[in-house]
Automatic annotation (TrEMBL):
The keyword Ribonucleoprotein does not apply. Belongs to the short-chain dehydrogenases/reductases (SDR) family. This is Short-chain dehydrogenase. Keywords: Oxidoreductase. InterPro entries: NAD(P)-bd_dom_sf, SDR_fam. The keyword Hydrolase does not apply. Pfam families: adh_short.
Length: 267
């Protein structure tokens, strides 16, 4: 494992991935290493990041840097920003979490932390990455939103953070048109990761057909990225669902979305 970013080889592009210790972030790490990237891996759990790095090195010969950071802390976000400013070709803002319980009963600190990880960190990291990419050979930023951010009804603060991510990414991508730097938004449905268990969201009523594996989601996202598509909604069932629900009158759409997503338990 590389001790510092400065050791990363210059002959391979570099991808920085937040949330790389688990789920979609770990799947991005594996796939981007396979595609020839060196990696900078960011999350809180240094042990799990080291394991992801070891696999990427063994399987794909990637040079990896582990950068443990708690993205609720401004000082840790600064560390990550400084690494991005040294130059990255690909940025995945994958770290994120949701919370269970009523908005009005939750501790404000938890809500602020959710905002920091889901919104503040992607904004800061995208800002640093785009500036650096525009000064260099261009690059790609993938921001993790969710199907939850497409139609109101599945909770409040988490869904709002994901709607922010979508508007932010698509708006910024328009502004970057023709520059060689793209910012895209990934909106997965239900993915088999630790997300729901960590959030305490009961998904027992979600039928098997809705679930996707992280590797499939990442493959479809990167296929969309390669085609220059700024919006990725992986999975036929998710595409049909969103197309159908978007055509319903808004109150009915929200009701369907709320029932499917067990929204009563989500903030
Ligand atoms: N799974 C789904 O069904 C689904 C659907 C739509 C969108 N998403 C979005 O996909 C993204 C990835 O989630 P996932 O499904 O892969 O869930 P996951 O398995 O729980 O992974 C979440 C990642 O975020 C990191 N993280 C959480 N809090 C952090 C903090 N304070 N500082 C730094 N890193 C932090 C975690 O690492 P540490 O614990 O090591 O810090 C972990 O690597 C999230 O943005 C989520 O909102 C997920």
């Amino acid at each position: 494992m590389a001790d510092s970013a400065a050791e990363a080889r210059r002959d391979r592009p570099c991808a920085l991935i937040t949330g790389a210790s688990s789920g979609l972030g770990a799947a991005f790490a594996d796939r981007l290493a396979r595609d020839g990237h060196d990696l900078v891996l960011v999350a809180r759990d240094a042990g799990r990041l080291a394991e992801v790095a070891r696999r990427a090195e063994e399987r794909h010969g990637a040079r990896c840097t582990v950068l443990p950071a708690d993205l609720t802390a401004a000082a840790d976000r600064r560390k990550v920003t400084e690494r991005i400013e040294e130059g990255v070709d690909f940025l995945v803002n994958g770290a994120g979490f949701g919370v269970s319980g009523s908005f009005w009963q939750l501790d404000r600190k938890v809500l602020e932390e959710q905002l920091a990880v889901n919104v503040t960190a992607p904004q800061e990291f995208t800002h640093a990455a785009v500036r650096t990419m525009l000064d260099g050979a261009g690059g790609t930023v993938v921001n993790l939103s969710s199907i939850t951010g497409l139609i109101p009804g599945r909770g409040s603060t988490y869904a709002a953070s994901k709607a922010w991510t979508r508007y932010f990414s698509l708006g910024l991508n328009e502004a970057l048109r023709g520059t060689g730097t793209q910012v895209m938004v990934l909106c997965p449905g239900f993915v088999r990761t630790e997300f729901h268990a960590r959030a305490g969201i009961d998904v027992r009523q979600v039928s098997e057909g809705w679930w996707m594996d992280p590797d499939d989601v990442v493959d479809r996202c990167l296929a969309d990225a390669a085609r220059g598509r700024p919006f990725s909604l992986p999975g036929l069932r998710n595409k049909v669902f969103i197309a159908a629900v978007s055509r319903l009158p808004r109150p009915l759409a929200q009701r369907v979305n709320r029932m499917l997503g067990n929204a009563g338990a989500r903030a």
